[in-house]
Amino acid sequence: MRIHSWRIYHLPLVMLFTTLPFLLANAVVQEDNLPDKLKLNEWKVPWEGLPRDPHVDSKGNVWFCGQAGNYIGKFTPTSEEFKQYEIPEGTHPHNLIVDSNDIVWYAGNRNAHIGRLDTNNGQIKQYPMPEGIKDPHTLVFNREGNIWFTAQQSNRIGLLNVQSGKVLSVTPTTANARPYGIKIDAQGNPWIALFGTNKLARVDAKTMTINEVNLPRPNARPRRLEIDPTGNIWYVDYPEGYLGRYTPTTKEFKEWKLPSKNPRPYGTALDNNNQLWLADTGEVPNIIFAFNTEKEKFTSKTPVPSGGNIRYMYFNNMDGSFWFGVDSGFIDQGIPK
């Protein structure tokens, strides 16, 4: 293992002093010699259309988006059966989440709505977006069961009240920040990866004010993030191939370069054993890495037979597995060994 810190000394002088508060975060490079500690189950989806962003309901059914195919799918692992649900034309769902009543909520990425799919009868209720929000992207529930979401191209972060249908939103201070991945911290505040810039953002849920946090490297572009039980923010830098950790209480960063030739980390899932699973889409077939957040090292490397890309992962705390879609037309389950 070696410390990878040469980038620090090649920054312009002004940028160096601006960046110094963050340089407690050394970028660590680990050698690519890892065991395979993951069992993969794969199922071919019977329809075309980029199956993605799965979520498991209380009965063990796996719901997922058919983004290009414009449908919502359900997969029942026990019977290995698929079922397709029709949604409004032109929706092209980007992401979905399932509430405690097994109702599916999806992001209408191309026609400016968030949809509610009643899984008992297939009926859909649409919640239209206000002016200025055209592309709901990634959704997450808060404690009250309302939905925080990102809108990448609209440069907005929104909150949908699922009872009234009212939408509140905030705009990042950075133009074209492209809000992407989103998670809720223990205080109920959403953290967002701003994919169009080298920043994370936190929204104060009470005041609807936004605070942006600069990452250590100017060319970083965070895409997905996770929040661990101690409140650390874990993010993946897609173009430069890093996994990073930001500690809000100390404002410190630490980063690790993925141990592959051309890393492009994308989908992530944090399990209940302090393991962070992340998909490296720079390789085909894609690679799933495991990173132990306590020992601070990569511990597993698994190629995905069906190919790539893996855009999003969902951890199922009922059985300790995680799920993801593969652009080549598969739904996968990862089971840590």
Helix content: under 10%
CATH superfamily, called what?
A: YVTN repeat-like/Quinoprotein amine dehydrogenase
**Range of strand content:** over 45%
Distance between the termini: 25 Å
Q: Output the structural class.
A: mainly beta
The CATH topology is what?
Methylamine Dehydrogenase, Chain H
Radius of gyration, in Å, reads: 19 Å
What does this protein look like?
The structure is a single chain. By secondary structure, the protein is mostly beta strands. The protein has one helix at 13-19; strands at residues 2-4, 27-29, 38-44, 51-56, 62-66, 71-76, 81-86, 93-98, 104-108, 113-117, 124-128, 136-141, 147-151, 156-160, 167-170, 179-184, 190-194, 199-204, 209-214, 222-227, 233-237, 242-247, 252-257, 265-270, 275-280, 287-292, 297-303, 313-316, 321-326, 330-336. The chain has a single domain (2-336), classed as YVTN repeat-like/Quinoprotein amine dehydrogenase (Methylamine Dehydrogenase, Chain H), CATH 2.130.10.10. A 6-stranded mixed beta sheet has the order 1-2-23-22-21-20, with no helix packed on it. A hairpin with a 6-residue loop joins β25 (275-280) and β26 (287-292). It is globular, with a radius of gyration of 19 Å.
